Amino acid sequence: MGNSRVTVREIARLAGVSVATVSRVSNGTGQVSEEMRRRVLEAIEKYGYRPDHLGRALAARRHGALGLVFPGLSGPYFTELIQGFESEAVPARASVHILCTHLREDSDDQVLEMARRVDGVAVVGGTISEPTLLRLAETVPVVVLAGRGLETVPAVSVDNAPAMTTLTRHLLVDHGLRDLVFVGNPDGSPDVSERWAGFQNAYHELDLAPPTEPLRLAMQQHDGVLAAERLLGGDGPAPQAVVCANDELALGVLVGALGRGLRVPEDLVITGFDDAPMAALVSPPLTTVRQPVRELAAEAARLILNAVDAPGVAPDGIVLPTEFVVRRSCGCPAGSPTGGTGK
């Protein structure tokens, strides 16, 4: 029979891991190394720990709700995030309140007001200011989703820079391309900033001079069409490859290139990031980086729920691995192998 007097924090201390790790092992969810899993299971078995997740969680919560803060809701990326977040919140009997700031001037005030109605908040990186993020964390558990954390605020993110370096090196080394353009705006977006840095790093690793500026556009498909107009509609030569900060941009560039009679990849190489469902369905299929979008949000919800259940225990941040997905839009033949970039 389980020992109700042993707490999750005591198991974490005995196993030498975080509370979040104990929760992932006992729930059978998330990514945990075999060594950590073994230590947690040994402590659970030795001390007879049997968590009453639902009862403890319901007792700890005041509102029975979690918050999600997005800059906007357009595109499949945010749909995937919502579904991943709800996959953890709903079984825990927590409703999900979504706030879209649209980067308004009063975004910070809106988020602080939301914190009065929820037990914890996940904020997409770059959506609110760092001082407000710290103020928010003094009120409720907070996790940065797809961005950079702060000293007291953990983050759930992916290995953006190494992944983009891998993709860019593939174009530079395996295909011998040199005239590459990065499309996406690093300003205000931690994800895009890291991908731009990874793009440049691939050049540096090969002792090549990288482009000094990206083509700064937003992240929606029509922005990709606009990118194609700017890059392909002038009198100067077109680039050899367009490296996009996400798949929506890449799909827009593909539409624009094909509309101008260009062949992809023969006349222009196009790559993306995310591996959205449409990336594998267009012709040619899109070379991209697959990131676990749903798992990003699910991990954020788990961290918040754990923090609510065990107040005062600072959760660890999480970096999830990605996978480099090679398809025909970069010039590789169909069926080329993919390569992981995970940590």
What does this structure look like?
It is a single chain. The chain is of the alpha/beta class and 343 residues long. It folds into three domains: 8-51, Orthogonal Bundle (434 Repressor (Amino-terminal Domain)); 59-157 and 293-321, 3-Layer(aba) Sandwich (Rossmann fold); 160-292 and 324-340, Rossmann fold (3-Layer(aba) Sandwich), CATH 3.40.50.2300. Helix content is 41%, strand content 13%. The strands form three sheets. The protein has a six-stranded parallel sheet with strand order 2-1-3-4-5-10, sandwiched between helices. Helix 11 links the parallel strand 7 and strand 8. The mean pLDDT is 88. It holds the Pfam family Peripla_BP_3.
Short description:
With 343 residues, the protein is an alpha/beta fold. It has helices at residues 8-15, 19-27, 34-47, 53-60, 76-89, 107-114, 130-137, 160-174, 190-205, 221-232, 247-259, 293-309, and strands spanning 65-70, 95-100, 121-124, 142-145, 155-158, 180-183, 241-244, 269-271, 288-290, 318-320, 323-325, 339-340.
Low-confidence stretches: none
What would CATH call the homologous superfamily of the largest domain? Response regulator
CATH class of the largest domain: Alpha Beta
Tell me the number of strands. Answer: 12
CATH architecture of the largest domain: 3-Layer(aba) Sandwich
Mean pLDDT, all residues: 88
Along the chain, the helix and strand elements come as HHHHEHEHEHEEHEHHEHEEHEEE
Q: How many helices?
A: 12
Which geometry do the CA atoms define?
A: globular
CA radius of gyration is 22 Å
What is the CA–CA distance across the termini? Answer: 38 Å
Fold-level CATH name of the largest domain: Rossmann fold
Structural class: alpha/beta
- Biggest sheet: strand arrangement: 2-1-3-4-5-10
Q: Indicate the proportion of strand residues.
A: 5-15%
Number of domains: 3
Helix fraction by DSSP (H/I, runs of at least 4): 40-55%
Question: How is the main sheet built?
Answer: 6 strands, parallel
